[in-house]
Amino acid sequence: MNTTIAHITFRGMLGRRRALLLFLLPGILLLLAVALKATGNDTQDSGAAILWTFGLAVLLPLLSLIAGTGVIGPEIDDGQIMYVLTKPISRSSVILTKYLCAVALVAVFAVLPVWLAGAIVLGPSSDLPLSFAVGAFLGGLAYCAVFTALAVATRQAVTVGLIYALVWESLVGNFAPGTQTLSIQQWALSIVDRLSSSSLINATVGLPLSVVLLVLVTAAALALATTRLRTLTLTSAD
């Protein structure tokens, strides 16, 4: 990991307007949690529902999309990435640094709020908050890798990412259950299902397959991003 690139990346991410979404989305989740607690609707059902339908299905993929594309996409669009690529830094180091920055942002702005929201609604006795936080973190690893690769591969990364997260995972997945095998959200949910003792969580993809797919997709996406970044250098040089 290159600390200089990481510093520039964090400064750029937190200084852009899109950074407002990093605070807005988790803020909505926490407000919902506080509202449920204040109105006496802090049941297992409501807690699981808010962590699943908003935390895992909306907050996590959207924050991962913002972070994964934001750490490198704007630099490619405006040509600033070439200043980095002309330095004696390996392309794999650039991608790994950008990826870890995205993961750190997701951990702070998605995983932590998911745990905190669950703790507010369900209290310390429930294992759901930690289960969802672990699932969100592991799912975020794959999401960030995929969206970082998309940002290197295409300038329509945000559009493609939204189609995957909101159309494929949420819409198509509900009407065609077989497609859930190709859903990062479902892979993360299988981890939540295993860690939690709650009968309210029922994953449609088995844990062994989910773990294998999470690892394979993350590794393949990072490899693709590195390869595409090398190609980007050659194309620009021509």
UniProtKB/TrEMBL annotation:
<keyword id="KW-0812">Transmembrane</keyword>
<feature type="transmembrane region" description="Helical">
    <location>
        <begin position="99"/>
        <end position="122"/>
    </location>
</feature>
<feature type="transmembrane region" description="Helical">
    <location>
        <begin position="128"/>
        <end position="150"/>
    </location>
</feature>
<feature type="transmembrane region" description="Helical">
    <location>
        <begin position="205"/>
        <end position="225"/>
    </location>
</feature>
<feature type="transmembrane region" description="Helical">
    <location>
        <begin position="157"/>
        <end position="176"/>
    </location>
</feature>
<feature type="transmembrane region" description="Helical">
    <location>
        <begin position="47"/>
        <end position="72"/>
    </location>
</feature>
<keyword id="KW-0472">Membrane</keyword>
<protein>
    <submittedName>
        <fullName>ABC transporter permease</fullName>
    </submittedName>
</protein>
<keyword id="KW-1133">Transmembrane helix</keyword>
<dbReference type="Pfam" id="PF12730">
    <property type="entry name" value="ABC2_membrane_4"/>
</dbReference>
